[in-house]
Amino acid sequence: MIKGLYEAHLPVSDMERSIAFYQKLGLELAHRGKKLAFFWIEKGTSWLGLWETKEVSIPYHPSIRHLAFQIDSSDMDHIKAWLKERGIEVREAFGFTPEEQPLVLANTPHAHAAVYFQDPDGNSLEMISPLAIDTNEHHDMMQLKEWKEKADR
Fold first, then answer.
1. Closest of 73, 31, 33, 28 to residue 53, by C-alpha
2. Which pTM value belongs to this model?
3. Cα 112 to Cα 97: distance, rounded to the nearest angstrom
4. Structure letter (DSSP) for residue 34
5. Active-site hit among 16, 42, 55, 126
6. In which residue ranges of the chain is pLDDT below 70?
7. 100 catalytic, yes or no?
8. Please, are residues 67 and 124 in contact by the beta-carbon 8 Å criterion?
9. What is the pLDDT of residue 2?
10. How far, rounded to the nearest angstrom, does the alpha carbon of residue 129 sit from its chain's CA centroid?
Protein backbone atom coordinates (compact mmCIF):
# COMPACT_ATOMS: atom_id res chain seq x y z
CA MET A 1 0.00 0.00 0.00
CA ILE A 2 2.63 2.61 1.01
CA LYS A 3 4.75 3.69 -1.95
CA GLY A 4 7.16 6.15 -0.31
CA LEU A 5 7.39 9.32 1.71
CA TYR A 6 5.61 12.22 0.00
CA GLU A 7 6.33 15.11 2.33
CA ALA A 8 8.32 16.26 5.31
CA HIS A 9 8.18 19.60 7.14
CA LEU A 10 10.68 21.87 8.88
CA PRO A 11 10.26 25.06 10.91
CA VAL A 12 12.05 28.21 9.71
CA SER A 13 12.38 31.73 11.12
CA ASP A 14 12.85 33.73 7.90
CA MET A 15 11.04 32.42 4.82
CA GLU A 16 12.98 34.50 2.27
CA ARG A 17 16.35 33.35 3.67
CA SER A 18 15.16 29.73 3.76
CA ILE A 19 13.79 29.84 0.21
CA ALA A 20 17.17 31.11 -1.01
CA PHE A 21 18.98 28.37 0.92
CA TYR A 22 16.87 25.48 -0.40
CA GLN A 23 17.08 26.84 -3.93
CA LYS A 24 20.89 26.72 -3.57
CA LEU A 25 20.42 22.99 -2.97
CA GLY A 26 18.68 22.80 -6.35
CA LEU A 27 15.14 22.31 -5.04
CA GLU A 28 12.31 23.77 -7.12
CA LEU A 29 9.81 26.03 -5.35
CA ALA A 30 6.45 24.30 -5.85
CA HIS A 31 4.12 26.52 -3.80
CA ARG A 32 4.41 29.70 -1.78
CA GLY A 33 1.93 30.84 0.86
CA LYS A 34 2.08 33.60 3.44
CA LYS A 35 4.09 31.64 6.01
CA LEU A 36 4.79 28.40 4.19
CA ALA A 37 6.58 27.16 1.12
CA PHE A 38 6.81 23.76 -0.55
CA PHE A 39 9.81 22.58 -2.58
CA TRP A 40 9.88 19.60 -4.88
CA ILE A 41 12.52 17.08 -3.84
CA GLU A 42 11.45 14.88 -6.73
CA LYS A 43 8.66 16.49 -8.75
CA GLY A 44 5.37 14.68 -8.30
CA THR A 45 6.94 12.20 -5.89
CA SER A 46 8.12 14.07 -2.77
CA TRP A 47 8.32 17.55 -1.39
CA LEU A 48 9.52 19.56 1.58
CA GLY A 49 7.31 21.98 3.46
CA LEU A 50 8.84 24.96 5.28
CA TRP A 51 6.78 26.74 7.93
CA GLU A 52 7.76 30.19 9.18
CA THR A 53 7.19 30.07 12.93
CA LYS A 54 8.64 31.19 16.24
CA GLU A 55 8.72 27.50 17.25
CA VAL A 56 11.88 27.13 15.17
CA SER A 57 13.76 27.79 18.41
CA ILE A 58 12.71 24.48 19.98
CA PRO A 59 15.81 22.43 20.84
CA TYR A 60 17.11 20.25 18.04
CA HIS A 61 16.42 16.54 18.11
CA PRO A 62 16.68 14.32 15.00
CA SER A 63 13.10 13.12 15.52
CA ILE A 64 11.71 16.60 14.89
CA ARG A 65 14.23 18.75 12.99
CA HIS A 66 16.12 16.42 10.63
CA LEU A 67 15.80 15.62 6.94
CA ALA A 68 17.97 13.40 4.73
CA PHE A 69 18.21 13.84 0.95
CA GLN A 70 19.13 10.72 -1.01
CA ILE A 71 21.89 11.11 -3.58
CA ASP A 72 23.62 8.63 -5.87
CA SER A 73 26.64 6.91 -4.35
CA SER A 74 28.71 8.24 -7.28
CA ASP A 75 27.94 11.79 -6.07
CA MET A 76 29.11 11.13 -2.52
CA ASP A 77 32.80 11.67 -3.40
CA HIS A 78 32.20 15.27 -4.44
CA ILE A 79 29.17 16.29 -2.34
CA LYS A 80 31.28 18.33 0.11
CA ALA A 81 32.76 20.38 -2.75
CA TRP A 82 29.26 20.81 -4.23
CA LEU A 83 27.97 22.12 -0.88
CA LYS A 84 31.01 24.39 -0.45
CA GLU A 85 30.40 25.93 -3.91
CA ARG A 86 26.98 26.95 -2.57
CA GLY A 87 28.41 28.43 0.64
CA ILE A 88 27.20 25.53 2.80
CA GLU A 89 29.50 24.09 5.45
CA VAL A 90 29.57 20.45 6.50
CA ARG A 91 29.12 20.09 10.28
CA GLU A 92 30.48 17.58 12.77
CA ALA A 93 28.30 14.49 13.17
CA PHE A 94 28.65 11.44 15.41
CA GLY A 95 32.15 12.56 16.38
CA PHE A 96 33.29 12.83 12.75
CA THR A 97 34.67 16.21 11.74
CA PRO A 98 33.71 17.76 8.40
CA GLU A 99 37.12 16.68 7.07
CA GLU A 100 36.41 13.05 8.06
CA GLN A 101 33.13 12.93 6.16
CA PRO A 102 31.51 11.32 4.25
CA LEU A 103 31.04 8.73 6.93
CA VAL A 104 29.47 5.29 6.81
CA LEU A 105 26.68 4.74 9.33
CA ALA A 106 26.66 1.55 11.38
CA ASN A 107 23.06 0.53 10.67
CA THR A 108 23.65 -3.20 10.23
CA PRO A 109 22.33 -4.99 8.21
CA HIS A 110 22.54 -1.89 6.00
CA ALA A 111 25.32 0.57 5.19
CA HIS A 112 24.80 4.17 4.15
CA ALA A 113 27.29 6.93 3.36
CA ALA A 114 26.35 10.36 4.69
CA VAL A 115 27.40 13.99 5.00
CA TYR A 116 25.75 16.36 7.50
CA PHE A 117 25.05 20.10 7.36
CA GLN A 118 22.46 22.61 8.58
CA ASP A 119 20.02 25.09 7.13
CA PRO A 120 20.05 28.72 8.35
CA ASP A 121 17.79 27.79 11.32
CA GLY A 122 19.94 24.89 12.52
CA ASN A 123 17.69 22.16 11.10
CA SER A 124 19.87 19.11 10.55
CA LEU A 125 20.22 18.12 6.91
CA GLU A 126 21.95 15.10 5.46
CA MET A 127 22.99 13.85 2.06
CA ILE A 128 22.79 10.06 2.18
CA SER A 129 23.38 7.18 -0.18
CA PRO A 130 22.82 3.45 0.34
CA LEU A 131 25.99 1.40 0.00
CA ALA A 132 24.76 -2.09 0.99
CA ILE A 133 21.28 -3.27 1.89
CA ASP A 134 20.50 -6.48 3.80
CA THR A 135 24.11 -7.51 4.20
CA ASN A 136 25.28 -10.01 6.81
CA GLU A 137 28.46 -8.06 7.47
CA HIS A 138 28.62 -6.07 10.68
CA HIS A 139 30.57 -2.83 10.49
CA ASP A 140 31.39 0.03 12.77
CA MET A 141 30.88 3.67 11.90
CA MET A 142 33.83 4.77 9.75
CA GLN A 143 34.96 7.16 7.09
CA LEU A 144 33.77 6.35 3.57
CA LYS A 145 37.38 6.13 2.41
CA GLU A 146 37.94 3.34 4.99
CA TRP A 147 34.84 1.53 3.72
CA LYS A 148 36.16 1.69 0.17
CA GLU A 149 39.61 0.48 1.22
CA LYS A 150 38.03 -2.56 2.93
CA ALA A 151 35.91 -3.24 -0.17
CA ASP A 152 39.02 -3.16 -2.39
CA ARG A 153 40.78 -5.86 -0.34
1. 33
2. 0.91
3. 17
4. S
5. 126
6. 2, 153
7. no
8. yes
9. 66
10. 10
